Amino acid sequence: MGKKRLTRQEQQARTRSKLMSAASKVFTCKGMQHASIDEVAEEAGYTKGAFYANFKSKEELYLAMLDENFEDRIREVEQAFASDEEAPEQARHAAADYARAMRADPNHLRLFFEFANQALRSDSFREELITRFATLRTRLAEVYAQRFEAYGVEPPIPVDRMVRMVIAMTDGWALWKMLEPGDVDDEMYESLIEVFTVGIGAMAGLLDQERAEA
Q1: Contact 143, 81 (CB under 8 A)
Q2: What are phi and psi of 128, to 5 degrees?
Q3: CA distance 188 to 158
């Protein structure tokens, strides 16, 4: 039997995926500002026409990559928090999953900071980036709020502010992992998130509750 022919929708999804993968390599190598649509299309093995059949502009491609990036990040947290482990272990495993994803895609961290650099150069892109971060924070805050509700305790600080703290710690770790990969490792990030979670739990009285139930 021959290979099953892809539907038009499947072909388009495959083309978009290859273009985004190619863009990750090109943007990382040349920077988002200097990379061209021709270079992205050539890296993916397509024509410039194929690019425009899927994306209106380089900026739209950036945003599609951001959306995919953030969806992966949310899914990792949701999966980790769906376990029956105690909060510190859940947090540590969520951090380990994120660090593992970074190792699997060496371009990921560099690309993230390319997004940030592009946002500093372009007000319109900055607004789009902020809008997407707001969506990411909202969805993560919903996950965090559900966990506090499941434990039956009130968050000691606003959940949105808590999420901002976690994102700030994650991005700080990511930056220094790029700059000092030999000294800043995955275990440091796992410990950082675990310690933060233990601190939040102590503030909320969650640790006393878990000890009483043990």
Answers
A1: yes
A2: -65, -40
A3: 26
Question: Which 8-state DSSP code applies to residue 84?
Answer: S
Q: Are 129 and 67 in contact (CB under 8 A)?
A: no
Return the number of other C-beta atoms located less than 10 Å from residue 102's C-beta: 20
- Enter the DSSP assignment of 6: P
Region of residue 200 (phi > 0: left; psi between -120 and 50: alpha; otherwise: beta): alpha
In Å, how far are 57, 82, 102 from 110, measured between CA atoms?
A: 21, 30, 10
User: pLDDT for 185-209, tens place per residue?
Assistant: 999 999 999 999 999 988 888 655 5
Per-residue pLDDT tens for 38-63? 999 999 999 999 999 999 988 889 88
* Token duo for residue 56: 């209106």
Angle at 41 between CA 120 and CA 128, to 5 degrees: 30
- Provide the 8-state DSSP code for 185: -
Closest CA to 177 of 164, 165, 190: 190
CB-based contact 189:95 (threshold 8 Å)? yes
Tokens of 73: 């990040």
CB 46 within 8 A of CB 38: no
| Residue 156 near residue 133, CB atoms below 8 Å | no
